[in-house]
Amino acid sequence: MGTRSIGIDAGGSLIKMAFEENRVLHFKKYPIAQMEEAMEWLKIFSADRKIILTGGKAGILKTNHFPAARIADEFTASCEGASFLLEQKNLLPQKKFLLVNVGTGTSWFTIDGDKQERILGSGVGGGTFMGLGKLLGGNKEFTDLVELSGKGTRGNVDLLVKDIYHPDQPPIPGELTASNFAKTANEATAADRIAAVSNLIAETLTLLTVQAAALQQTSSAVFIGSTIAGNNPLQESLKTYLGMSGIEPVFLPDGEFSGAIGAKMF
Fold it and tell me: 80-104 pLDDT, tens per residue?
């Protein structure tokens, strides 16, 4: 990995950077709304460094700020960066695995040695969490919504299997969802509603991950992306649901910077 280069992943929500100082890899990120602030810092810091861009806003950054920069393919950069991190942290699976990148939306890849392929995409992801979160929980930041989701009781919003079978015992776990957001007549707090949003995302990602794993004949799934980072409620839900299908998810530390790391490697 070149020490005199900076990888920048400019996505729909965040600008993420990977760079080295004294042979130590560092990361930095800014909300996309703070692009100008990020560019001011970069122009000072990157005076004699090569810039490699990736992500949906890479073209804008190249045109407006770094005309000499190269643009790396976003999907390749994410896979290469994630593989690098997995190897560095001794977490790299020994066989084919799924890489699930939960950003503004979500992409699924298969990685098999040096081979990588994007196999699936969904509009459900961090943008869904932020959008529905603000509609149902107020105009709050990501960390506030994550905290709310951990305090809420989704059973006050979602119709659960045990609700349908009450007072009898259900034939499947009663805490599973029978219908998302079906208890609209109930009094629910903002935390309850955000917990239900987080659960809806977890269930959707689980469903698609399990189907992709079956088609690709693997039981290994590595999750990266800003929506996963520091989001313990979402991680716990994914662990529970995926575990029911025999998939043990890995939540890659610093995985949200995989695209920036991969760009730096180009």
Answer: 999 999 999 999 998 999 999 999 9
Does residue 205 contact residue 124 with C-beta atoms inside 8 Å?
yes
pTM of the model as a whole:
0.94
The predicted model gives 116-137 an average pLDDT of: 96
Query: Is 98 domain-assigned?
Result: no
| Cβ 201 vs Cβ 128: under 8 Å | yes
Mean model confidence pLDDT for the chain: 94
Q: Which two tokens stand for residue 56?
A: 């949906």
Q: Is 92 exposed, middle or buried (0-12, 13-18, 19+ CB in 10 A)?
A: middle
Domain of 141, in residue numbers: 122-255
Q: Are 144 and 242 part of one and the same domain?
A: yes
In this predicted structure, the answer to whether residue 185 has a pLDDT above a threshold of 80 is no
Active-site entry in 74, 80, 203, 256: 74
Same domain, 135 and 220: yes
- Which DSSP helix (H) or strand (E) runs through 216? helix 190-216
Are the beta carbons of 65 and 73 closer than 8 angstroms?
no
| CATH code, domain carrying 25 | 3.30.420.40
Q: Give the number of domains in the chain.
A: 2
Angle at 71 between CA 81 and CA 63, to 5 degrees: 140
Note the pLDDT of residue 23: 87
83, 195: one domain: no
147 is a catalytic site residue? no
Buried b / exposed e over 209-219, threshold 16 CB at 10 Å, is bbebbeebebb
DSSP state for residue 150 in the 8-state scheme: H
